[in-house]
Amino acid sequence: MIKVNLVGNPNTGKTSLYNSLTRSHEHVGNWHGVTVEEKVKRYSYGGQEIELVDLPGIYSLSPLSYEEEVATEYILKNPETLIINICDASNLGRNLYLTLSLLELGANVILAVNQIDKVPISKVDYKKLSNILGIPVVSIDADKKYGITELNHTIINYKSSKKYKLPYISKLHLGEINISKQENDEFYKIKLLENDENILKKLGLKENIVKPDVELVAKSRYEYIDQIMKLCVTKQTRVYGRSKLDKILMNRFLAIPIFLCVMALAFYLTFFSLGAWLSDGLVWLLDKCIGSPLISLFTNSFGAGSWVVGLVEVAIVGGAGSVLGFLPQVALLFLFLSLLEDSGYLARVAFAVDDILSKVGLSGKSVYTLLMGFGCSTTAVLTARNMEDKNSKIKTGLLTPYMSCSAKFPIYAVLGGAFFGANNIWVILGLYLLGIVVAVLMSYIFEKTVLKSKQQTFILEFPPYHSMNFKRVLSVLLRNMKEFFIRVGSLIVCMNVIVWILSNFSFSLKYVASTGDASMLEVLGRFLAPVFAPLGFNNWALVSALIAGLVAKEVIVSSIAMFNNVDGGNTFIGESLKNPASVIFFATPSMVISYLVFCLLYFPCLATASVLRKEIGRKWTFIGIVLQLMVAYAVTFIIYNIARLCENFGAVKVLLILLVAASILVSIIIIINKIRHKNICAFCRKCDGRCGKSKKIK
Amino acid sequence: MIAELSGSENIKIRRRLGDLGFTEGQNVRLVRKSLLGKVYLIELRGYTLSVRKDILKAVLVK
Q1: Is pLDDT above 50 for A696?
Q2: How close B22 gets to chain A, by Cα (Å)?
Q3: CA B22, CA B27: separation in Å to the nearest integer?
């Protein structure tokens, strides 16, 4: 078996090549750091078995972020393994820098030059490049699968020769450095010049024995690259990542408003117009074609009133059906998110909002994680790995569950829709914004207290804009629909059956639908309900739904549908909850709002919690969850009471009073600040007049 | 414009800037700034990079 590692700069198409070689469908995007951990898969070519490892993107063998560390460690641990170094033909110069680092290590390298752009920026003479570097060079197009056979052929015929020589090494005066290591000593000496902490540790050195000179190393490598480029590449016609579109989209003042409009449009299309129509259609179809026939089948064979019929009707058809109806919307949401990512727009958004986010202790890169959090926080948390600073990574991870993920949307749509009808769009908008506002506030609090960002850096490449082809749209849609379908079919149905059993059998295991005894869940719910009395929903059913929702948020909707549906004849929650009078659990709209807010904030689902534990450790996950419960309780309490006051006294009056109170508070804070900083220097705003500037003016 | 790396900043960051192609004698061009002016969009070596201004302190431009 041949082992092969895929190594390259971020966003050069490593995962595309991985997918092409192994016929997989791993997630790819037009963003720096989509792949955050190594992925392994075996395939065979020409009778040989090949094990391919896809690694996160790196610029050099000196890592800054966690995911870069993963890749670098992997390469250093397996120095003899064959490496496919994938380079972007449009940005070859910068990409060859990593190639040189790999050659310094003495690795076995095949260079795969990927043509991503349709119109190549420059023409590369591959033969010459291969001759100069002394390694095989293959031209490929990872997406269109061009050159894949040739690459496979090169892999199985590869013979380690290490014929290459790097002329610039003589300039580094490595002979003057003495280290005990025998193998690859050139590589280690260069790393000492670069003052690489990990290498120092590996060599057992406490302090660097040479005076580091990172500039010299970088300069010599790039001088060699410039020579190579002159010989092998016709001059670049365009700058990689430059686009005329950016004049408008990334205009200093328009960039953020345009981004907000794009997001608003995406959400409107997903949840209200296109998505809602598709969803309504699907619900009707499911009801007519699957739901009703299934129920009548079971009614005929078991007789009405039997608990089996109840289970099928309520837990499976009603409960799962209520969630399954959201399939089109969830699929569309993920499609829009990948459109944003694939087009290369997201990297630009990160640039536009970085300085604003840095005020609350986040980085522009957090935008990626938080936006992915609108889809699914479980997978979003993983993307926090491309943060360079550990505290920023923890912060971003902890904030992701505050976003309205796709599993929370059904709750808003169903419960909000029942009470607010057409106005629900504003309720949902409010909830999405509330999630963001709470996350920003929490981030600010973290930044000012325990999780101060230490060495936050923001360096991000601008990828070229890409349009998405039809094939890719289809594959994203299909993959997400499949995942959602499996999730509903397994996890949600399972949870529904458990909730149904717990809510329909008493502790003595009697079917309670006909007797009117308290079920197991009812007893538990009633026990916990008083805790939620200040929030307005001290109802056993709502509380039990919250408990069930710990596993997956969709279960909240299906559970309420089940409880609501005990004696109703409707198949789908959409039907049974369309009329507010039929929702027995909510007396007033303020109760609904209160419940929705609590659902938004209260807990990351179990899957997210377990990923968090892996990513940021047990301690921070625990703190995060406890904080989230407390924040949810406090915020819900405030909002519930404001909403209640609005109900009692009219919204305008209450809002006016709140506005007045807020302005009084703000002016008090400003006055206190003024008094406290009376002597502050007007020039640096940090000292009390001791800095040079103010003296000069005086 | 000609860039030169100065020794004042954190060595990790200087190393990364070197890796990205900020080397002595290299042409760099400031393309645009973000809203608060703290992040720069820079073109060098035929590609585009957004970088925080404070990181660029290590880069002296003649």
Answers
A1: no
A2: 8
A3: 9
The Cα A10–Cα A14 span in angstroms is: 8
Q: Given this model, what pLDDT does residue A124 score?
A: 85
A661 to A645, A665, A666, A668: CA distances (angstroms): 15, 6, 9, 11
* Average predicted confidence (pLDDT) for chain A: 84
Indicate the residue type of A415: L
Interface residue A219 vs chain B (CB under 8 A): yes
Residue-range domain boundaries for chain A: 1-239, 663-697
Instruction: Write the DSSP assignment of A334-391 as a string of letters.
Output: HHHHHHHHHTTHHHHHHHHHHHHHHHTT--TTHHHHHHHHHH-HHHHHHGGGG-SSHH
In terms of residue numbers, what domain contains B38?
3-61
CATH number at residue B48: 2.30.30.90
List pLDDT tens digits, range A595-633: 999 999 998 888 899 989 988 889 999 999 999 999 999
Query: Helices then strands (H, E): number in chain A?
Result: 33, 7
- Cα–Cα distance between A525 and A379 in angstroms, integer? 31
What span, in angstroms and rounded, lies between the C-alpha atoms of A126 and A135?
Answer: 11
The minimum CA-CA distance between B5 and chain A, rounded to whole Å, is 7
Strand (E) or helix (H) holding A40: strand A39-45
Number of folded domains that form chain B: 1
Longest CA–CA span in chain A (Å) reads 96
ipTM of this predicted complex? 0.94
Provide the b/e sequence for A537-552 (b: ≥16 CB within 10 Å). bbbbbbbbbbbbbbbb
CB pair distance less than 8 Å for B16 and A457: yes
Rounded to a whole number of angstroms, the distance from the CA of B57 to the nearest CA of chain A is: 12
Residue B11 Cα distances to B15, B40, B62, angstroms: 6, 21, 21
Crossing angle for the helix pair A126-133 and A214-232, nearest 10 degrees? Answer: 140
* CB proximity under 8 Å: A 329-358 to B: 347, 350-356, 358
Instruction: Supply the angle between the helices A493-504 and A540-548 in degrees, to the nearest 10.
Output: 150
Looking at domain A1-239, its CATH class is: alpha beta
Q: Taking CB atoms and an 8 Å limit, are B46 and A121 in contact across chains?
A: yes
> A62, A222, A250, A353: which to substitute to probe chain B, counting the most B Cβ within 10 Å?
A222
Q: Tokens standing for A500?
A: 């149904």
Q: Which tens digit of pLDDT belongs to each residue from A502-527?
A: 888 887 777 776 666 778 888 888 88
Q: What are phi and psi of B61, to 5 degrees?
A: -115, 130
Nearest to B48 among A196, A354, A461 (CB): A461
